[in-house]
Amino acid sequence: MTTTDGGRALIKALELEGTEVVFGLPGGAILPVYDPIIDSPIRHILVRHEQGAGHMAEGFAHATGRPGVAMVTSGPAATNIVTPLCDAYMDSVPMVVITGQVPSQAIGTDAFQECDTVGITRSVTKHNELVTRAEDIPLVIRQAFHIATTGRPGPVLVDIPKDIVDPKNPASAMEWYWPTDDEVASSLPGYRPTTKGHAKKVREAAQLILAAERPVIYAGGGILKARAAEVLRELAELTGIPVVTTLMARGAFPDDHPLCLGMPGMHGNYTAVTAMQESDLLIALGSRFDDRVTGKVDAFAPGAKVIHVDIDPAELGKVRRPDVPIVGDCRLVITEIVRALRDLSGGDGSADAVAAAQPDRSTWKQTISGWQERFPLVYEPSGPGDLLKPQYVLEELRSRAPEDCIVASGVGQHQMWTSQYWRFNHPYTWINSGGLGTMGFSVPAAIGAKVGRPDRMVWAVDGDGCFQMTAQELVTAATERIPVKVAILNNAYLGMVRQWQEMFYEERYSEVYLSPDLPDYVKWSEAMGCVAMRVESPEEVGPAIDKANEIDDRPVVLEFRTDAAEKVFPMVPAGLSNSDIVVDPSQGGGAR
User: Fold this and answer.
1) Among 7-11, 378-382, 486-490, which is the least confidently predicted range?
2) DSSP for 66-84?
3) Which end of the chain is less enclosed by CB atoms within 10 A, N or C?
4) Which domains does the chain have, with CATH numbers?
5) CA dihedral 418, 424, 427, 428 (to 10 degrees)
6) 347: burial class by Cβ within 10 Å (0-12, 13-18, 19+)?
7) Catalytically annotated residue among 60, 114, 126, 162
8) Cβ(218)–Cβ(261) under 8 Å?
9) Which of 496, 528, 533, 571 does the annotation list as catalytic?
10) pLDDT of 280-310, one tens digit each?
11) Secondary structure E strands in 41-180
């Protein structure tokens, strides 16, 4: 065996786990680990705020499927990364976060920059642990990556006291070893995710599918986490069943596919929302019946039976009791359902045989087509001298970007417009904060995505409110030569809050005005090392985007002056049924 110290053991463990990049910021308690990283092939990206490190790790994980890694010091650094941890926990993002901690003997004494990191993060991590011995570090790191990436993915935090990684401290001395897969498994006796679906339940699901007259596939983010996009398409094409893709599943099923209905939910399109509401069977795959999708739960899809497939047994029955619950990995379970459909259809198990075994759904298809024709996404184009329409900006961004462009968004109106007006035909090209709804997510997440996929163009679509929260990470992007592109939809308001105040608070606009000119986004972006342009008229939009797309040696920021009066439609008002969906005023407004 080789004698080493805890700090070097930690870095070596990260290397052996395949870590290519760590997003972080050093400080006193983690300093001993930052010394050996100088000699490591791991790339370290120095952030300007620990929240940025966490969101970059998330963006990296979204874009690559591999766990993002962040490393920060103790106390306020650890509390700063709590928001990304919670964000990753809500959206099932694989992430490993390493935090420094005060020396072991100082824990509990209110030492400088001490906090109970494990206690604070217990409810927002899949697993967390305070390491107490240097010799435990290799096993704990192996466990962290295993837990973060298997079963339902999620964030894992490892808290490490300074003394066990400091080579000057005897507590840091250890003999190097690397645990085997069997040793990792045996060290986690209570952790055994179920991946294969129950055969009887799979057969019952296939029987319900073959009997349904108005079925809808309700695809959630679990499809992407399970790498199940291909088998989802196989299931849809085999059965001819239309597919809705939730906010977290955009790209899991191609938007240009004839069976794609787009996004459901509070700001989903009319057809997706109403098809779910009027269905007689919901095939929920890796989705969790989020309140933004269901609206008023008691009134959600009242005539539908439910097949619910999820890797996390806690999700089954949490919101809606399924008729057929199946615990398992979506990719494996969908494959089994497809096999069962072929077996139950008789004949040669071909697509024709499966089609013949199902009811005539022509009326359902015609109904869906009628909704699509009558209630498409619409907006009123800008008139002479008007501010830009955000929808138009997004259409131009989309049409001028490569097919496989990755787009990250912040949270609010611009997030909904991006999901509505972009066309996601490839998986892992849409990165956003779904469950937690974290303002400031976009810029650092886009940076992390570009680090993970340097071959792809990466756009961040942000609002002026979101941008002001984490814009400093563009300094990181400029310094590290990470050429992300940022589109700020500047309407001088906290737009979604303003929309609610206009619609539900009698236009009493309380604390939502931000000013169109303060800060000056162009000067600010230039000061951070970016190329920046302001766009104010429709004829400027296309040329500005083309110029931004040509720049690939530094970050680019485009500020679009957009109309604050624009609202996101359709909309299901909070607390109401999806049947009370409000469409654009040009389509009659009000509930349809």
Assistant:
1) 378-382
2) SPEEEEE-STHHHHHTHHH
3) N
4) 3-187 (3.40.50.970), 199-374 (3.40.50.1220), 390-569 (3.40.50.970)
5) -30
6) exposed
7) 162
8) no
9) 496
10) 999 999 999 999 999 999 999 999 999 999 9
11) 43-46, 68-72, 95-101, 127-130, 155-161, 173-175
Predicted confidence (pLDDT) at residue 76 exceeds the cutoff of 50: yes
Closest CA to 448 of 419, 487, 477, 415: 477
Assigned token pair, 25: 């910021």
In sequence order, which residues have a C-beta less than 8 Å from that of residue 561 and are 6 or more positions away? Answer: 387, 388, 490, 516, 534, 535, 536
H/E segment holding residue 199: helix 199-211
- Strand-pairing partners, residue 307, are 283, 324
Q: Which of 112, 200, 318, 547 is catalytic?
A: 112
pLDDT digits (tens, 9 = 90+) for 441-477: 999 999 999 999 999 999 999 999 999 999 999 999 9
Quote helix, strand, coil % in the chain, to nearest 5. 45, 15, 40
User: How many CA atoms within 13 Å lie on the side-chain side of 548?
Assistant: 31
pTM flag (> 0.70): yes
Single out the catalytic residue among 113, 207, 372, 472: 113
Residue 50 bears catalytic tag: yes
Q: Is 240 left (phi over 0), alpha (psi -120 to 50) or beta?
A: left
Amino acid at 427: P
**Residue count of the chain:** 592
* Active-site annotation holds for 567: no
Known active-site residue 496? yes
Residue 592 pLDDT greater than 50, yes or no? no
Q: How far is CA 148 from CA 89, 114, 129, 186, 302, in A?
A: 10, 26, 13, 17, 36
